[in-house]
Amino acid sequence: MLIIVSIFFLAIPGNLLVGLVIGTSRQPLTPSDVYLFHLTIADGLMALTLPFSAVALVQGWIFGDFLCKFLSLIIEANFYTSIIFLACISIDRYLAIVHAGESIRNHQKTCSRILCAAIWAFGGALSLPALFNETYKFDKDSERLVCSESFDFGSASSWRLATRFFRHFFGFLLPLCIMLTCYSITIARLLRTRGFQKHRAMKVIIAVVIAFVLCWTPYHITMIVDTILRADMVQFNCAMRKSVNVALVATNSLALLHSCINPVLYAFVGEKFRKKMLLLFQRKLRQERVSGTRFSRSTSQTSDGNGAVL
How far is residue 51 from each of residues 1, 138, 209, measured CA to CA in Å? Predict the structure, then answer.
């Protein structure tokens, strides 16, 4: 529970700040900026569901059937969209470095917002099975009400297995292949160039890939093992089942940690973002000074007026 609460308090301010800086920027946004803005929305929405998960770990599911299904839908949708947006950022960085100055970049700027809308729709469509998979029921082992997948042992139907396949393919394998391909070509190009900024970009790219693999690979491996057990493909005992359940909780927390790392890797380490953040703070300070000056003048005029009456 402590880990989930910590992730919540780290993810919300980080993603909120990144979204605020990008959303209030007066400069034209690049496609990566647009994807990063939508990524912060997806990660932020995911983080907002964490307090419910934290309470459920301690007291069981006390929020009713509607929130069980609704929050499951939100989690699934943002699970897909956030990872697909990461893949889009890798494609844009590949185009920006490997195909810099080509007309495709200008064309992509006009398509990025349309693509974001399509990604949200795609993520929403992939998350719809959560409305049927998630059930509000009493768990005999924990003696609590739980909100969990309706995926009973030995009765894994084809469509339920298909939803697990979609989760692994569209939520991990395909985005990972896209990221590895784009970033490998990008690094190869950067190795042929000189300059501090180029080598710094290469270090950031390597950190992005490592963070993605470390945070998400354990979760998907555990999910595959869980699917095999639930589909009754191998024999297992209660101890093995409990071990997988514990591993699911642990690896899920590790995967959620990625929503805290994203703002750091994709925004705070970038010089361009830090400049935008500094400009935002300077603009806010100027606005506060102007409003403070106006308030002082208004107070002074009121005092003068009252003095004249007296």
Answer: 9, 21, 28
Residues in the chain: 310
In a domain, 294, yes or no: no
Give the integer Cα–Cα distance in Å for 122 and 86.
15
Residue 177 structural domain: 1-278
Provide long-range contacts, Cβ within 8 A and 24+ apart, for 213-219. Answer: 213/176, 214/254, 215/254, 215/255, 215/257, 215/258, 215/261, 216/83, 216/172, 216/176, 216/255, 216/258, 217/172, 218/247, 218/250, 218/251, 218/254, 218/255, 219/251, 219/252, 219/254, 219/255
Confidence (pLDDT) at 101: 66
Q: What is the mean pLDDT of residues 141-164?
A: 70
- For 162-201, the pLDDT digits (tens) are 888 888 999 999 999 999 999 999 988 888 877 666 677 7
Give the model confidence (pLDDT) of 109-133 as tens digits. 668 889 999 999 999 999 988 887 6
Domain count, the chain: 1
CATH number at residue 130: 1.20.1070.10
Q: By the 8 A CB rule, do 38 and 24 touch?
A: no
| High-pLDDT (> 90) share of the chain, % | 29
Task: Determine, yes or no, domain membership for 283.
Answer: no
Asked whether residue 86 is assigned to any structural domain, the reply reads yes
**Full-model pTM:** 0.82
Please compute, for residue 245, the number of CA atoms within 13 A of its CA located in the half-sphere on the CB side: 12
pLDDT at 218 over 70: yes
Question: For residue 172, which amino acid is it?
Answer: F
Q: What is the pLDDT of residue 310?
A: 30
CA distance 292 to 284: 12
Element (DSSP H or E) covering residue 220: helix 196-230
Handedness of CA 233, 129, 42, 250 (dihedral sign): negative
The answer to whether position 310 is within a domain reads: no
